[in-house]
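U., I forgot to send this yesterday:
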Amino acid sequence: MRYLNLALKIILFLLLLSFAAMNSETVVLRYFLGTGWRAPLVLVLFVFFAGGLLLGLLIGVGQRWRQGRELAALRKAQQSTDK
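Result:
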């Protein structure tokens, strides 16, 4: 099982490496007032993927925090009715 896990990690790494190598052309992201950012396509994709991942994690943490507070209030209410 350990060797299968290692083999899958190596295959995934090689796929991502080949993806990066095939998408190394420079692209320009244009902003307001004529400003822009020149970067390799794979870097732009990685930045937007990481930003989406971070946004999703922040939303998940917020929901988890709210649910934790709600659970604590429910447990407190249950303890007060049990007495």
